[in-house]
Amino acid sequence: MLPLMEEFYSLQGEGFHTGRPSYFVRIGGCDVGCRWCDSKESWDAAKYPPVLTDKIIEHAASYPAKAIVVTGGEPLLYNLDYLSRGLHGEGIMTFLETSGSSRISGEWDWICLSPKKDAPPLPEIFEKTNEMKVIIEDLQDLEWAEENARQVSSGCILYLQPEWSRRSTAIPVIVDYIKSHPKWKISLQAHKYMRIP
Questions:
Q1: By residue range, what is the domain housing residue 104?
Q2: What span, in angstroms and rounded, lies between the C-alpha atoms of 155 and 123?
Q3: What is the SS3 assignment for 95?
Q4: Cα(79)–Cα(104) distance, rounded to whole angstroms?
Q5: 3-state secondary structure at position 134
Q6: What pLDDT digit, counting tens, does each position of 123-172 carry?
Q7: How many domains does the chain have?
Q8: Do the Cβ atoms of 39 and 87 come closer than 8 Å?
Q9: How many Å apart are CA 128 and CA 36, to the nearest integer?
Q10: Which CATH number does the domain housing residue 60 bear?
Q11: Euclidean distance between the first and final Cα of the chain, in Å?
């Protein structure tokens, strides 16, 4: 059982898989608590009664796109082995979004790491990361991005993403930085511009 905050079918709005139809599962509970988090209501797991994991798998399997994004909160606060195995058993590709601050569990086709300064990633996550997305508020965040980029594998795709409330000032900074550091790409929250959940 997992403390399910919400589940819905939509398009991925960020990073490498932007535009891909996916089933989203947001698990309650977070021990990171970013000031700019756009789902602060997910932090307190006690607000969300545990749901049978088999029900989550059943719901995900009922949609035409066989892809699921497991996010939070911080989903790795829970053991996700059963969930991911069950999803794979239904032929569903599994995508994890995590800060990497907790021990990894589950079998994932794609891991998006979004490292946070207040709860840095555990070393074990870096070699398994397919995509790293660092949220940028100010110039100091670029230093944090580079610190983490040195730890992922050479095949990891690197993104800088403007913090939504500061996008008008952060985007020019990110664009200039990427032009000088071309290993990075920019990620925008396309779902917010399109006003889709």
A1: 2-194
A2: 17
A3: strand
A4: 8
A5: strand
A6: 999 999 999 999 999 888 999 999 999 999 999 999 999 998 888 899 99
A7: 1
A8: no
A9: 26
A10: 3.20.20.70
A11: 25
CA distances from 17 to 41, 69, 114 (A): 25, 10, 15
E strand spans, the chain: 2-11, 21-27, 50-51, 67-71, 93-98, 110-113, 131-136, 157-162, 184-186
Pairing of strands 67-71, 50-51: unpaired
Residues 6 or more apart from 143 whose CB is under 8 A from it?
none
pTM above 0.85, yes or no: yes
Amino acid at 8: F
- Both structure tokens of 18: 């932007």
The model's pLDDT over 27-70, given as tens digits with 9 standing for 90+, comes to 998 887 676 666 767 778 889 999 999 999 999 999 999 999 99
Structure tokens at 148: 């983490």
Structure tokens at 97: 């979004």
* Residue 180: burial class (beta carbons within 10 Å; 0-12, 13-18, 19+): exposed
How far is Cα 70 from Cα 26, in angstroms, rounded to an integer? Answer: 6
Would you list the DSSP string of 89-147? Answer: HTT-EEEEEE-S-S---S--SEEEE--BTTBPPPHHHHTT-SEEEEEESSHHHHHHHHH
